[in-house]
Each structure stands twice: as structure tokens, then as C-alpha cells.
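Dear Dr. L.,

I hope this message finds you well. Following up on our conversation about the binding site, I have prepared a predicted three-dimensional model of the protein together with 1-deoxynojirimycin. For your records, I am including the exact sequence and ligand specification that went into the calculation, followed by the C-alpha cells. Please feel free to forward this to your student if that is useful.
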Amino acid sequence: MNSSDQAWWKSSAVYQIYPRSFCDSNGDGIGDIPGITSKLDHLKTLGVDVVWLSPVYESPNDDNGYDISDYRAIMAEFGSMADFDAMLAGMSERGMVLMMDLVVNHTSDEHAWFRQARSSRDNPYHDYYIWQEPVEGREPTNWESAFSGSAWSLNEATGEYYLHMFSPKQPDLNWENPKVRAEVYDLMHFWFKKGVRGFRMDVINLISKPWRADGSLADAPVVQRGFLQPAFEMVKHGPRFVEFMREMRHEVLDHYNSLTVGESPCATVEEAAEITHPDTGALNMVFQFEHMDLDSQAGKGKWALKALHLPDLKASLSRWQNGLHGRGWNSLYWNNHDQPRIVSRLGDDGHQYRERSAKMLATCLYLMQGTPYVYQGEELGMTNVAWPDITHYQDIETRNMYRVATQEKGQSPDKVLRSIHAKGRDNARTPMQWTAQAHGGFTTGTPWLSVNKNHDHINAEAALAQPDSVFHHYRQLLALRKQWPVLVHGRYTLLLPAHPHVFAYLRSDEQHSVVVQCNFSGQFQRLPLTELPDLRAATPLIGNLPFEEWPMAPDTLAGWEARAYLLPGAALTHND
Ligand code: NOJ
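The resulting structure of the complex is given below.
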């Protein structure tokens, strides 16, 4: 094992908090920092080492904090800097560390830099952002923003367009400008010096734009009807991305023993390997999206629903497992504040199988190689919501898409709502369900977004009290990773690649082998034992049905069942 194998963040478990929806301490219906501090024991019990906090900086909340107007101030709705310090102290008392969200592909249009920048072409801050002249009286390129509409907005004062890959209130920073980069490095030092241990970097692989020699940007390839075209593919991992990140490493990251994870839309294994390589890269790991795109129609965007074909998921995750082994490092996630709830997405969120399928999904993911991420409420098996009309939804992406789809593209509201029920970001953002009481114990006031009505039986209080709950299964999985180094560092080998319903794999190192078998269907599945390692001498490690029942059916898995076995010795061979 070399020193990078021992990096602390490889054997750590990360828990993501979406502060707005976690716990409201003052009854205004919005989660806040004192609320987080009051719930740290919940995280400690789960076995969390690192807390990743979605943005808590000052923001006009066009995109719930991902539009920052002051990187060194706390959003008033969330509390004060003193509250922040108290939260940090609470984490440190419990042996946990904090990872902040670094949103520096763009700022808010209300940030002082942008207010200055847009005022005139010769303002010293003008070059902090990305400007282009109109082309034939319209937007300079056909790029579509991630939140619908053009990625360019006209700035009346200067007669130029500015770029925003997200909402018009999120103008993209110009990373070509060394002053911008110096500002970013400065603010990172500011938070590191306060005691923060790392950063999750928002859409970091979009920071280097594909400039042409003449200072213009090219149109994106035409893949859909109309003028606007998706542009992430051509902006991601741009020409100077790796250079900028190495500079950040040199200027900032090398000074701290930190954890960094770069959110990386459209990233390939090779790109991730380059940026996470311990010697030549800059980040510890990335969030890749390939496995999140497999239940959408290829090339049509996330709202174009498609049933998952399990062998696609197996092939994808396995390619990442093997592709980064010994080179970079994976992050293991099913959920975050942008994704629907995994038990509703790939499991069965009905009464009978919700808990079993939630446990199966966690078992399948967290026994792979990588750093596990748990998103608030995932450890309870929280589910999606399906509200009857768009007025219930708050998310800017969802609302904009609904407007364009129903008003400009003439799609039926019912059809669009079906996509929102399956994929909308508010599925993840309904408040955390702490108790069976009103509003799930999240607030004593009126929550900013409705609490899922199933909080009467899905809540933290009930889950902690029930020994075989989803919560305790998550806790055991995280604990097993601490106990068995093979689960952190061991090699990964996919088994039964073509099986349509069973995801099985092997983890192995010199001392041990672990075999994982997961049934992604509600039906019994027969296992082709000749294609699996011999498990007769194996011991059960973890499962979602009682161990006593396993020997009775070594060649079958019950609906949504998951089993992991431990084999002593380097008993198994695999293809290196
Ligand atoms: C990715 C974040 O996760 C998402 O919530 C946000 O809307 C965009 N980046 C823009 O910052």
C-alpha cells in the first residue's frame, strides 16, 4: 500500500446536508445552521466522518444558494458566522470534519463583482465574467442553459451578452483572468483557515471554456429541434481545466490535508483519472454522472424517461471501478440534492419492499471501491413526492422546464408532470423527516417546501428505534468499511455481467475476498452457481434478510435481496 492508499478520505464516509431542508431551529420554515448543530448526534450514530454542506453563503436564492453573492458571509436565513463556528466546533467534538460547497464556475448576478462588471466595459471587474458581442443581432452561440432558455443574456448597459450556463442570475466567471483565480484561491484559504477540511466543487469541470484563437466561442452541435442546443459536452474538461486545477492545487490544496471532490457533468473515466491522479491530478475524486443518465433516453436529457436496463448500470459502474483502480478514486453516490430518491428510482418505494430495496441499493453501492456519500434522508429510505400540479414545486430547473415544455413545446401537463415526479430535484429537497409529528418535526412553522406525507412512518425517530431499519443497515455498511480494508482498497470484479436482474461482484485483496449479490427485482432470482465463486466456506457479512435463511437457498435471491459473503484467504482469482 503506498501513502496515497492510506489517504484518510478513502476510508471516510461523507454525509451531505442540504441546509434549507435539514432542520429548522427558529420556526421560519427554513432549515438553518443551529438546526444542523442540534442534529450532529444523528450523524455520529450513523458513522459519518465528513459532512458536506450545500452552500450556506449569502445568496439571493435564485438556485437555493448555488448563486452566491458573498463568499465570506453566511446567508442570514441560515444564521450567523458565530452559528457556523459553533457548528464546526460541534463537529470537531464528535470527530467529524466539514466539507464546504465551492461554487466558482459562476457567482450570483448580485455579487459585488458582477454589479461592477456589468456597469461598463472599462470597469476593472468587467473581465471577471464572460462577454460576447451580439452576432447578427442575437445570442453569440446556440448554447442552451441547464435551466432552459439561452445560456446568454443581454446586458443593456454595455450592449454585450454575458454567459450563464445556469440561470441568468448565475453569470459564469472568466477563469482566463488570473485575478479571478486569485480571488478563488483566497476565499478557499479563508475557509480552510477557519477549520474547514475540504470542498465539493460545483460543476468544476465547466470552468475552462473552449475559446477559439479569435476570442469567440463555437456553436454546439445540433442534436435537437430549434436554435438552442445542449452545450455541457463542449464546455466540460476544457483546454485549460487541468492547468487551472493544478494551479489551485499548488496555490491552495497542497497546503492542507484536505478532501476535494469535483462535480463533473459528462466526465469520462479517462478525464476523471487525469484529474484525480494523486501525482499529476488535483482533486481526490469526482462526482461522475454516467450511472445517473441510464434511465433517460440517450441524448434527450434527463426528463426523457426510460426504464433502466440493469446490465447497463453494471457495465457503467464496473468501468468506473476498474478504470480508476490504482490511478484515481471513485465517489459512491446514488443521491444528492439534484437527484430523485434512489428507493423510488431503482427500488420499490411501496409498503412491502421499501426498506428491503433501500437496503439492497445501499449494499450494492457501498461495498464498491470509493468514498461513500449518503444524502440526508437516504439513510431513512425517504421517497420521492408526486404533487398534482406545478404550483407545489419550487425548483428553478423544474419550473423553467415545465414552462417551456407546456407553453413553448406544446407538451401535455400530465406528461411533463410524470417526468417531474420521476426526476425533479424537489424529490430530494422535501424536508428531512425527523419524527411522526406535524411537518415531520422539521419545523414548528410552515415549511418552505411541503414535507412528504409519509413522515408518519418514515422518520428518523422510528428508524433509530427499529433494529432492522434502513438506518441501521446504512450504519452497519459504513462500519464494515472501517472493519475490512478489502472493502476500501480491494480490487473489483464484476460477476454475471449479462444477468438481467442480479448485480454481483467480487472485492479482493491478498487477505480476503468479498462476494456481493444484489437482486434488482421484486421476483426470486436463481443464481447460476457455476458462474459464481464457491461460497460453501464463506461467512455471511451483511444482508437484508436474516442470515439464518441464507443456507436454505444458496442458489436463489429473494425479491430485492442483497447478500455479501466473506471468504478468508486470497481464495479467489480474478482477471487483473
Ligand atoms: C450543480 C448543483 O449541484 C446544482 O444544484 C446547481 O443548480 C448547479 N450546479 C448550478 O450551481
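In brief: The pocket of 1-deoxynojirimycin is lined by residues 63, 66, 103, 166, 202-203, 263, 337-338 (CB under 6 Å).

With kind regards,
A. P.
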